[in-house]
Amino acid sequence: MLSIIGILTIFIIVALLISGRITPIVGLVIVPIFGAFFAGFNFKEVGEFFNSGIESVISVVIMFIFAILFFGVMQDAGVFNPLINTMIKISRGNVIAVAMATVVIAAVAQLDGSGASTFLITIPALLPLYKRLKMNPYLLLLLVGTSASIVNMVPWGGPLGRAAAVLGVDVTELWRPLIKIQVIGLLLLIAVAFILGLREKRVIAKKVASGDFDDKLDELGEVEEQNVESEGTSLLRPNMLWINVIIAVTVIGLLVWGKVPAGFIFMVGFSIALPLNYRSVNEQMDRIKAHAPNALLMAAIILAAGSFLGILNGTNMLDSIATDLVKVLPAIIVPYLHIIIGLFGVPFDLLLSTDAYYFALLPIVEQVVSGFGVPSVSIAYALIVGNIIGTFVSPFSPALWLALGLAGLEMGKHIRYSFVIMWGFSIVLFLITMAMGVITF
């Protein structure tokens, strides 16, 4: 019964997010509460689950608020304009080249193993370029998320660390066979980016030719330069460019270093950059007011997601789902359970959090399948490779909510745009991994 309630709760939330009928905050807050009540938990217990969930995301919320303010000031001051203009010059406005470059940039940014920092680095820098070229911003999120997922198979990334803890093996040893998979995956993704870029180029050309181009994207694209001139020449600080670049590079460097809390880094960076670029108190308050609405809105959504995760974890719905999914399967497919779950790893990301997947589902699958002579590491590889691409198409990912906030996009539209492509890419990479003998059965 607990599993049924949990699945229905998640299904209703995902369906509401995809349909766009309610705001994410309402769905993430209200639906899990009703689920907990139906499961027999009282107000006091739900409140405790809420506190636990909020504690798990509060650092992301703090980071998000000050990251938005920091990058907002950097954009107002014109820090990213030279980078954008250089990329346009190199690509000569080539949509395909920009799409392929996005994969490489995201891969480098993800080397620290943090999806949040990857989005913080890539989205503010690349989004204006996508808008200027009239490219779909959901393509940016798709390419960055998929590239970051491939690179996230590093020892200091969350998935391998969780899997190594479950199996009791050295995480570096677990990683080595996956290095070639990562290289192949990135090369394959660059090829996919070429194809998607070609498709995007045709879509743009068709819309421009028909005069039926999306007004919002058109406004954000070409009119952006006019906005900079009409509203923003007073905000630009070309004489402060190198100082701002040093501040931005220092902030990003500290973020990649990983020794200092990200929220603290952005708080300090923002507190330095704001008065340096805008000397009067009125100017400073105007910049805060300009960027605060987006920061606070998405901070509220992340807090709602924390409540959602806290309730589902606290009620043990996620653990129950992971256990019962294995029990209801026919006996004939049990020896191949790791293959089946791997192939459906991306859809599983819409049902299970990362912790539930690795700490609840993986141990059960490993215990069952290893009894048929399949090596435990092979089982882990199947679940890792099959699932990891879906990390950034799942509403369970706080980093994805951060990316959506940075880009001003919606979760439901992102799932509709990216899910099939990311799942298809995951299946191809999974089959390649099997062909190379990393996954056996």
Written account of the structure:
The protein is globular, with a radius of gyration of 22 Å. The protein has a domain at 58-158 and 175-298. It has helices spanning 2-19, 24-38, 43-76, 81-91, 95-109, 115-132, 137-151, 158-167, 171-210, 215-221, 223-230, 241-257, 262-277, 281-314, 317-327, 337-343, 345-348, 354-369, 376-388, 398-407, 411-435. It contains 21 helices and no strands. The model is unreliable at 215-231 (pLDDT under 50).
List the helices and strands and how they pair.
Elements: H1 2-19, H2 24-38, H3 43-76, H4 81-91, H5 95-109, H6 115-132, H7 137-151, H8 158-167, H9 171-210, H10 215-221, H11 223-230, H12 241-257, H13 262-277, H14 281-314, H15 317-327, H16 337-343, H17 345-348, H18 354-369, H19 376-388, H20 398-407, H21 411-435
Helix pairs in contact: 1-2, 1-15, 1-21, 2-14, 3-13, 3-14, 3-20, 4-6, 5-6, 5-7, 5-9, 6-7, 6-10, 6-20, 7-9, 7-21, 8-18, 8-19, 9-21, 12-13, 14-20, 15-18, 16-19, 18-19, 19-21
Rough outline: globular
Averaging pLDDT over every residue, what do you get? 85
Low-pLDDT residue spans: 215-231
**Helical amount:** over 70%
Summarize the structure.
The protein is mainly α.
